[in-house]
Amino acid sequence: MTTATSPRALAHPAREEIRLEEVLHALADPMRLRVVRELAAAGAEVTCSSVELPVTKSTSTHHFRVLRESGVIRQTYQGTAKMNGLRRDDLDALFPGLLDAVLAAAGHQSARDTSR
């Protein structure tokens, strides 16, 4: 795992350290999948607080940490804000089509759930 270079830098796995089973584990949780869907829809980095989850702040922090440590997202500080972005380039290079397939399936499931 890439170590933090300053007190405000966060550790992320290098591309070659990202493991499929860890990515799938991260994406298997409905709240984390919701975060990934929102980041994909945003198409840019967003703050943690802009992704509204129906959980406590500490639980939300946990979900973002799991996504970061699995290599699904990158988190950086900009001033006091923690910015989040998908590591789409890394995921697409390692697992071509996986992220698009997961996002499409999640969209279909969401549409199915709302039509009930």
Tell me what you see in this structure.
This protein has 116 residues and is of the alpha+beta class. The chain has one domain (15-107): Arc Repressor Mutant, subunit A, CATH 1.10.10. Helix content is 52%, strand content 12%. It has helices spanning 20-28, 30-42, 57-70, 88-94, 98-114, and strands spanning 46-47, 73-78, 81-86. The protein has a three-stranded antiparallel sheet. α1 packs antiparallel against α3 (57-70). The longest helix is centred in the C-terminal third of the chain and has 17 residues, at 98-114. The protein starts with 19 loop residues before the first helix and ends with a helix. The mean pLDDT is 92.
Give structural attributes.
alpha+beta, Arc Repressor Mutant, subunit A, three-stranded antiparallel β-sheet, 3 strands, 52% helix, HTH_MetalResp_TranReg
